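User: These chains co-purify. Model them together.
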Amino acid sequence: MSSSAATATGIGASVLRKEDLRFITGNGRYTDDLNQPGQSYAVFLRSPHARARIIGIDTREALKVPGVFAVLTGADMAADGLGDLPCGWEVKQKDGSDMVRAPHPPLAINVVNYVGEPYGVVIAATRAAARQGAEAVMTDFEEREPVVDLATARDSAAIHDGVPGNLAYDWELGDRAATEAALASAAHVTRLDLTNNRLIPNAMEPRAALGVYDRSGDEYTLYTTSQNPHLERLVLSAFVQIAPEHKLRVIAPDVGGGFGSKIFVYAEETTVVWAARKVGRPVKWTADRSESFLADAHGRDHVTHAELGLDADGNFVALKVETTANLGAYLSTFGSSVPTYLYGTLLAGQYRTPNIHVEVHGVYTNTCPVDAYRGAGRPEATYVVERIVETAARELGQDPAALRRRNMIRPEQFPYETPVALIYDTGNYEASLDRALELVDYAGFPARRAASEAAGRKRGIGFACYIEACGLAPSQLAIQLGAGVGLYESGEIRVNPTGSVTVFTGSHSHGQGHETTFAQVVSDRFGIPFENVEVVHGDTGRVEFGLGTYGSRSLAVGGSALVKAADKLIVKGRRIAAHMLEADVDAVAFEDGQFVVRDSNQSLAFGEVAFAAYVPTNYPTDLEPGFSEKAFYDPQNFTYPAGTHIAEVEVDADTGVVTLVNFVAVDDFGHVINPMIVDGQVHGGVAQGAGQALLEHGIYDDYGQLVTGSYMDYCMPRADDVPDFVVDTTVTPCTHNPLGVKGCGEAGAIGSPAAIMNAVTDAVGSNDVSMPATPEKIWRALAG
Amino acid sequence: MYQFNYHRPATMAEAVALYGEAEDGLYLSGGQTLIPTLKQRLAAPSDLIDLSGIDALKGIKVEDGVVRVGAFTRHAEVARSPEIRKALPVLAALAGHIGDAQVRNMGTLGGSVANSDPAADYPAAVIGLGATLYTQDRDIAADDYFQDLFETALTPGEILTRIDFPIPDRAAYRKFPNPASRYAVVGVLVADFDGTIRVGVTGAGPCAFRATALEEALARSFSPDAVRSVEVPEAGFNSDLHASAEYRANLVRVMAERAVGDILAG
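Assistant: Joint model of the two components:
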């Protein structure tokens, strides 16, 4: 790698984002911006009930509405032989059996199991006609008692036939006997009950899809809001069986935020691409915000009991965790993996806890399916570990920073194998803790608390020393653990004859800024101008393959694939240069964009070699012309970003209002490509975490109706809800990928809820406050 | 939304006539509640009679110790009106914190007060300042105007034309915004008219009302301490996802206390 931290656009430079000109001038091209000749519009029939049998669907009046072309139902889809929406991760239960999958037809047939579940679609010439048609459909439902409450779901009537106790799986990890024994002999045991509140994703751009069928070539094209178009294509081909892969092109153009909710394969895009053939017209659907609330996969929703044992010196000896995780009415695409492999494996945190056992009950309820949402399992794990560690420090009268420091894995102990199946490759947790303590002015906290109290407000401080596993994932390990696909990434670099470069990545950018950062990586590698690199993503017709963007994986896995492809080009370039310069190939090095014959003044620029590859006049006869390479990169391990977040809050005791007054995040993401973009990722993540801790809560009533179904009631964080964040990084480079990078997309949302709640409970003087810490809850906690 | 006939009359008489002729007509003022309701297909009027073209509904005038505000005056106009900021700064400040900038640029005084959303801000001012509300036919005292949830003294077809706000010696408004919607969970306007105290409360009950116990306590001693000692009964208060009746009762007291504090701080 060239040492280009000094260049204005290379690795380490805060290059302004290429993509922002089109975004901020309204020139982005999102799915809803796209239109096709003869296009029709879909409006879905959605269940108004949390649980009901469909007795009959009378479409006669709907079909009389002018402009309505068709009313299609789940039965029509089944008659065409379409399959269920699959869950892509098999979780083995603790008795060795497979998890229990409930049937999940894209459009419900006979039964509906959550409010907003689609069971049919009206397709019409205009959106208004489709809506009018949908209102004219008369559906006869027989309502049944819904299962809504997570705590009692296992004791309730079975939602799905063949799923007693509504239990999708009982899963465990770690050594139960050793953990229980260590707890029994611990000098102190801290016990804690926690709720991790249900969140609703709320990407700025609602989901949308446009399905097109070309009869002349028997080809389908689906434009949709996806974080992973190749996976979408794979699922629609192999499982739902809409069309073979070579006849289905999936394009995810500009996408306005995902946060996980656009990883999954949903009913709506499945329906429009299928229906496009049925009605002989392109079919378009764009969710309204109400549909997003009801039917975008939700996040989190755990109830947990945890016990942490410590010896007399304050060393953690055991952690035992039992969690009931709400999976919603059906297993969403990766819903099964989030509360298991992305959660239980992270319960060691940054600590040397020798005995850990976790048991997770994954249960079905009559609510929207739950799946990955920014952090996916790791915020839940961090919340358990960091809340119980803070609680233990309080119970023992110890400084929470000191208790953490005592138990942290030390730099010389890496690689470190945890009792919950991960091998951390590297880290320096005390370094981020120390830097965070310095930035927050920990020593000055008592004075700040006194000043707040003098002004009539309570003040608290809270820590979260989080770890996450990112860079998903070593394919063989992931498949062993139940993943239905490998989790490598692909990349391709086409160097044009004039030396400019087009990069194709299987990652997908929906806010992350890949068009900028990936161009930084490639231009830096080749020593060519940043402007000469164009990044292409999000189209199965242009990019060979890809697994997409989630789990902070794009740079660590997708970026590594590009480095691998670049290195193949450099190898080829050295052969071309050696021939042209009449030197031995081993004598040719590539430095700062030049192929150089060592110990000589002979060199060729990158562009000269590229030109020679396409105009091979003076060229090795045994070498193919052209200058383009592909690579697949399969990581050897996860990456382990980690850091310390510290929150300070003030509480107005009269009203219970919590104000986040200070937030310090010191993260170790390994090497950083673009510090500005990384800061932005942390800012957004912390804002989302503050939303979870203080504001957001997806609430269903006893009838399974979503009470928080609009922005009138579901409280998203706004600019005035958060302070100016203080962010910094420490660096231990990842040991196993070529860029030494770990990933930064989720960290903000992982560390912050625990830090904020530790601060809130510190200020309030009571641990009995659940997320979100709304004013009334705090007022009641203070009233005792 | 469903189809409807749209009208934009230039005079009151024309508006009233159109309303009379419509099968199921509705007046449209700033539309900040009605338009979202239509978009969600929760209302299906046959006719919308847009009041924005009627000059008689517009204008701000300060005379005889009263601020007269035309019903079709947008929140932003009240917030930035030099006359109101001088004569009745509490009203300008209240209007300046309704909703967001888009809402303030469209929403109107008359629309808000006619709708009588229990969480709207203006009703606290109408009650707390003892306003008089004018329609094409009559005038209504504030204390007689708000009747229940979204229910007022207005009869079908009646249009608010103007609201007159008496100018107190001193006044302040405090609201506790809903964190999600930023509507008032509770809003309290305290006004002192030469020792006669009025306390208007919005958000807490089905409609805005006077907190007489607080008025009496403040008449005895105009101080935060006087408020603190008053027990605010929660009976009949709203209770929802965001705030129980008990918590709202607490907020009425706290917001009143803070409004008094603001007044005393000048």
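The radius of gyration of chain B is 18 Å.
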